[in-house]
Amino acid sequence: MSGNGSIVAGCLAPHPPHLVYAENPPQNEPRAECGWEPLRWGYERLRAQLDQLDFDVLVVHSPHWQTYIGTHLLGVPDFKSLSVDPVFPNLFRFQYELSVDVELAEAIHDEGRDAGLVMKMMRNPDFRVDYGTIVSCHMSRPAWDKPIVGISSCRATSYYSVEVMQEQATELGRATLRAIEATGRKAVLLSSNSLSHRHFTTEAPVPEDMSREHIYHHGQYLWDMRMIELIRAGRSRELIDVMPEFIEQTVSEADAGSLAWLMGAMDFPDYGGELFGYGTVIGTGNAVVGWFPQRDGVAAGGGAS
Length: 305
Ligand code: 2XP
Ligand code: FE2
Fold this sequence. Notes:
Layout lengths: L5 E7 L4 H7 L13 H15 L5 E10 L4 E4 L3 E7 L8 E7 L2 H13 L4 E4 L8 H10 L7 E6 L2 H4 L2 H22 L2 E6 L26 H15 L3 H15 L7 H8 L8 E8 L2 E8 L14
Parallel strand pairs: 1-8, 2-7, 2-8, 3-6
Antiparallel strand pairs: 1-10, 4-5, 9-10
Helix pairs in contact: 3-6, 6-9, 7-8
The chain binds (2Z,4Z)-2-imino-6-oxohex-4-enoic acid and fe (ii) ion (FE2).
The site of fe (ii) ion has 5 residues, from strand 2.
C-alpha cells in the first residue's frame, strides 16, 4: 500500500518514568502504592481515544535520545533489553521488547535528507532504546502491539539557538508527514516532552508521597497555563513563536524539538488540541494532549476560517 497515508493523531506525551512506576506494569521491577493520578488518568483518557482509531504505527520524537550530528532513526526491526533510568534507577528498571517500522523510518530518513537535514539510520542491534521513547510509548499504548519509529533529538538548541532548532524540527516534521503519506501509513505521533522543567533536586523517602508534589514555582505554572491555552485554542503558530522565551524561562524540554516537530508534521493545526490531563512530577509541568485532524468538524489541510 502506498500514497494515501495520514496522521490520525498527534499527541503531547511526556515521559516521566514516575508514571510507569506508579502504574506497576509487569515489565517494571520497582513497585509503587499510587502516585501522579491526575496525569495517569489523563493518559487513560488519551488511550481511550487512540483505541477508537485505526492506525499502524507510533512515531515518537524523544529528548532523551540525544545525537549531536544530525537526526538518527531506529533502524533495526526488533529491540529487547532492560532500560534503567540514569537519574531514577529506583523507579524505572523496565524490560522492553518492541518492533520498529524500519520501512517508514527509512522513508523519513530519505525525505529529511532530501530536504537538506543531516540524517542517519541507527543500525546497532545492541542499542539501548532511551527511556523517553519507552515511557511515552508505554503510557500511550501499554499493549506494545504496534511497531514504532524512534527519532532522536539533534540538540540544535545547544549548538545554535532555539530558533535554528525550530526551523530544523519543523522541517523534520514536514519530512515525516511526506514519508507517512508516501508509505501509506496511518500514524500516531508522540512528542515526548514535558512543559516547564524546573524540578526539585531531592526526593521524598516515599517517591509517590503526593503531599510533596507540586509545581516548582508560580512563574512556571503561569507559563504552563499560557502554553496550554494556546494549544487548546488551536494557536499553534503562536505556540512556536513564544517557545524561545518559554524554553528560556522554564528550561523546558521542548528545547529538544519534539513539539516543534509535531507542529510541523501536523501543518500547524488551527483546531484545538484536546487536553487530557495536567500534573507535576518532581515539580515539572506535564500535559497530555491529543490533536485529531480527522475528527468531524476539523477541516483537513488547516487554514484559518
Ligand atoms: O529529568 C527529566 O528529563 C525527566 N524526564 C524525568 C523526570 C521528571 C520529569 O518530568
Ligand atoms: Fe525528560
